[in-house]
Structures are given as C-alpha cells and as structure tokens.
Amino acid sequence: MENYYEGIGRRKESTARVRIMNGSGKFIVNEKPIEQYFTRLGDVEAILTTLKTTGENQGNLDITVLVKGGGVSGQTSAVQLGLARALLKMNPEYRTVLRKWDLLTRDARIKERKKPGLKRARKAPTYTKR
Fold this sequence. Notes:
This protein is of the alpha+beta class. The protein has helices spanning about 35, 45-55, 70-90, 95-100, and strands at about 5-10, 15-20, 25-30, 30-35, 60-70.
C-alpha cells in the first residue's frame, strides 16, 4: 500500500476525498484527468491555486480525487478545500499560507429550506387585492 495524505472537503451538497502521494504529476478526478472533469473556465485554475500558494510542485505529486453530489461549483470548492487539508497533513507549516489565502475555511452556506405558503424559501405568491 502506497503512503498518501488524505483530506476531505465539503461545500453545499458536494463531498470530495482528496489523496496526495508521491508520483509523476497526475491529477485524476473520478478516474478522469482534471481538465476533462472540470470543463468550466476557471475551475481548474481555482483548484490549482492551492498548490501554487504553497509553492508545492505539482510535477512530483499524484493527486486522486473522489467527488460526489452537488453541482459543478460546489464540487470545485469541495476539491479545493480537500486539497488544502491534504497538503496541511503533508506539511503542517503550510497552515499560515493557506489561512492567509482563506483556503482552510469551510463555506457553510447551504440552500435554505422551503417554507409553507411560499413558493421557495422566501418568494411569496403574488399579492392580489381582488
């Protein structure tokens, strides 16, 4: 069994399990290359900022991610948090840098529940006088 560092990231309804191990620089998300999984413009860059801030060389690390649930934006943020937490386990000295870039904070915002008598969480039906 290979030695790896694991970090769990969550955002909205998404959960990402990120594993970092020494290797040849492969970044695999749900058994696909990262560019193939996250096709939206800027998502891959957002995830890789975590590696750039720590100065960790992506070329000598293999990163595998298992991400479930939610949409594209939630999954992107979940992977970003999971990667930051895994890097922190790998090297605890990264804490100050990751904190400075706000990469260790879990975004707790979730969808608000629907209330009875309303169309959505806060949208009320149109008022009619007659």
